[in-house]
Amino acid sequence: MGDDANTADDASDEPLLLGVDAGLTNVKAAVFDADGRELTVASRASPNVDAGPERVERDMDEFWAVTCDVVREAVASDGVGGDRIAGVGVAGHGHGLYALDSEGEPVRPGITSLDSRATSVVDAWDEAGLTAAVAERIGYEPFVADPLSLLGWLQREEPDAYDAIDRLLFCKDYLKYRLTDVVCTDETEASVFFDPDREAYSAEAFELLGLDDCLEALPAIVPSWEACGEVTPAAAAETGLDAGTPVASGLHDVGAVALGAGAHRPGQGTLIVGTWGQSISLTADPGGHEAAGIARRFLRDGWLRYRGTRSAAAAVDWFVDECCPDWREDAEARGVDPYRDVNERVADVPAGANGLLFLPYLRGSTDHPNARGGFVGLTEDHTRPAMVRAIYEGVALSLSTHLQELAGDRGLSDVRLGGGGAKSTVWSQLFADVLGEDVVVPAGAEMGARGVAICAGLAVGLYDDHADAVDRTVSTERRHRPDPARVASYRTIREAFETTVEQHVTIWETLKQIGREGKTNGDH
């Protein structure tokens, strides 16, 4: 009996780690023990605001308030408590724009990476050859939700806000600032502005775009696995954390999910099926500017390259909300998770969705900003489950093609699957069949939060290095092995999908022009 009591006392003294994952859809706070077990998770909807056509913003104070709510709820759970949190890590969506003035106040609402207001800016840069010239400096062409493009839009459309910028931050860096009063970023976020060869901010890129007056606003870089500051007394009062708790510099959420899923070595790949879809390949070097995707510095010695599809699980949500409200009502009446209900409806639809393709570009893509979504091959015989199956397949085909292009001749030693879509066994198996590779779904739901909890654990000395941290904190929930018959089917389906995308590029340009003319006519 005494032994049992000692065990309980010892357990109550074990340090815990808090990971905050501020994504495009939800803000989550998850508490983990040192072995990576999720003890509690709190979640709130991200306070996004539809600020007009193609504009998705956040009130910065409301964003902080929502974050305080989830942190407070997570640390108030039984057996947790702010005094047991040894360290905090924060992840957030990438790109977008969060800027402070000289007083440390937001110059305007934050702009998320769902935003497309800078399309005309990017078009003008394209025509002038500037995006290609910038790509030679930073390894990728700025797209519509990129901070460079958004700075160009602010300079043109909101010059007072542009002139007031004193510090440029990313989503998670604003939350770190509110927690610690420290302004900084980490290597994954900073490298979006890097000259990869020098691993330093590229002054040339800013000068080419006429944004060189923003160079002094770029934040200091603190490695993701090091402490950047401590929770202030004011933040402690709002969050329930103890003042003085170390806060790690954290990661862009793409890197956080990769690390939380167990990917930390060159050759590993990760697919994220969240609001956005992301394809991530870990490499030993950044590659040249002609390489696919965007390169980011990652952890101590590596890089990751990634490509995004701006609508993944969001495409399923859109279809179910718009076309299947009765499904949700039925699931709620039966006490069944709506997503599990959708999964069951899709499970019996064969590969190829009875000859139906779906282009998952409801918000464009980083490759084709003008891309549109749509069903191709639709007939009156297609059912709603077949249409959802086509959405599952369209997302899987898009992300898998990106991943294989990122890996190139190096191939993949290991593929991890994360994000909300990984909860679906049907969708997870579909990825294995499309890739023709084993796909590992790690245990636990909050991989992004786990990734930055690992950063916090490293910052406070709980782990020796990233390999030690992953060995201790990441385990496998499921492994999906490809079915040879479906692999063969998806080779044919992939060819049809890629041909359809190629043939739609010109159509997307035409539709974009029609949309512009419609807006112009509507103004009269």
How would you characterize the overall build of this protein?
The chain folds into three domains: 12-47 and 60-94 and 223-262 and 438-478, Nucleotidyltransferase, domain 5; 95-169 and 187-221, ATPase, nucleotide binding domain (Nucleotidyltransferase, domain 5); 313-415 and 483-518, Nucleotidyltransferase, domain 5. The chain contains 19 helices and 23 strands. It has a five-stranded mixed sheet, sandwiched between helices. Strands 17-18-16-15-21 form a five-stranded mixed sheet, with helices on both faces. Strands 4-5-8 form a three-stranded antiparallel sheet. α11 packs across α17 (447-459).
Defining key terms:
524 residues; Nucleotidyltransferase, domain 5; alpha+beta; 5-stranded mixed beta sheet; disordered N terminus; 23 strands
Q: Outline of this structure?
A:
By secondary structure, the protein is α+β, with helices and mostly antiparallel strands.
Q: Could you outline the blueprint of secondary structure elements for this entry?
A:
Elements: H1 2-13, E1 16-22, E2 26-33, E3 38-45, E4 48-50, E5 56-58, H2 60-75, E6 85-92, E7 98-100, E8 110-111, H3 119-127, H4 130-138, H5 147-157, H6 159-164, E9 167-169, H7 171-180, H8 187-190, E10 194-195, E11 200-201, H9 203-208, E12 227-230, H10 233-239, E13 246-248, E14 251-252, H11 253-260, E15 268-273, E16 277-283, E17 294-298, E18 302-309, H12 313-323, H13 325-334, H14 338-346, E19 357-359, E20 374-376, H15 384-407, E21 414-418, H16 425-435, E22 439-442, H17 447-459, H18 466-473, E23 476-480, H19 484-523
Parallel strand pairs: 1-6, 6-14, 15-21
Antiparallel strand pairs: 1-2, 2-3, 4-5, 5-8, 7-9, 10-11, 12-13, 15-16, 16-18, 17-18, 19-20, 22-23
